[in-house]
What we know:
5-stranded mixed β-sheet; 4-stranded antiparallel β-sheet; 10 helices; about 325 residues; alpha+beta
Amino acid sequence: MSRETRTIRPFVGIDDFADVLDGAVLYFGQEACLASEGATVSLSPHEFVLRPVSIAWGPDDEAFERFKERLDEGVNAAGIAAEDLSLVVIVSSPFIKVSEVVYEGSVSDLESLRRVTNLTEDRRSSAFSAPFNGFAVDAYVLLSRSLAPKVLRPHVRGTWLASVRFRIETTYAPAVLSPTPLTDEVRAQYQLGAKTIRYLYFGDHDVLQPYAQQERPVFYIDEKLLAQMNVRRRSAASRALQLQLAQDFASAVVRRASARSEPLDLGVDDLRTSLLGSVIRIAAGPGSTDQDRARILSQVSESPEYVIARTEHMIDVGSGYGSMLKDDES
C-alpha cells in the first residue's frame, strides 16, 4: 500500500498552494519524471551531459490552465500580492556539490509563462552535467521579498508555500560515490603520505553483496583539490578529474572483486544491487542485456584489466583529457 507524505507548513491561509505543483513533469530528454518521483537512466556520460532538461507545469494545455488558475486562487486565499511570489526551480548535484537557480519567474506574470520551461536552453548548469550520480530538481512557489510580519502568516523572503522534487538517477550510482574531503587528520588516521590526493576506504564492505545493506565505502579526495574542482566546476580540467575519479573508483571495485581467494561463482542477478553489479553495468554499456553483462562478469577473475578497460571506454575518460589539453592550447 502506498502512502503519501506531505510536509506540514505552520501557516494559515496557504492550503490552496499545498499541491499546486503536483501536476508538474520534469523531462530529461524524452524521459518523463513525475512530481515527487525519480527516474533512472542508462546513458554514457557524453549522452547524459547533452540531454536537454525542461519542466512542464502541466502535462497538457488544460492542466496548465488549471495550474495558473489555482495559483491565482492561492494568491487570493493567502492575501499575498502576486508580485511578492515567484516560481523558482533549483537544480542540485551532491556529487559536485552544486545547487543553482535555473528558473525564476513572478507569479504576477503568468500570462508570459509557457507550459514547458526549458532549463538548459540558455546555459546548462554544471549540476545537470554530473552523469555519475544524477541530479535533483526542486520547484517552489515562494516569497520573493520579505513582508510585514503577521502571526501564522509567511513573511520571510524565501519561505516556500509549495514545493515538489524530481530526481534523475543513473545506473552508475552507486558505482561512483560522492567524494569526501581528505584532510590531514584523515591522512594521519590511515597513515597516508602528505601528498596522497585520493584514498578509497572499503572497510568491511563486500563489493559482491547488496550495497545498501552494508557500511558504505568512503572515497576520500584531497580537500584542496575538491575545493578547486568546485570553484572551477565548469572547466575542462574539472570535468577530466571527475571522469578520472569515477574510473579510479570503478577500477578499485573490479580489483577488489578479482582479488578474492574463492571463485566468483555468482551470476548477474545475484550481483544486481552490489557495487560490482553496478560496475558491470557500466562496462557493458547502455542498452546491454543480461547476457552481455554476464560476458563481462566472466572476465572479472580471469582478466580484470579488460573489465577496467571497458569501464574506461564507457566512462569516456579520454574525452575529458582531450578537452583539457585543447583548453591548454587556446
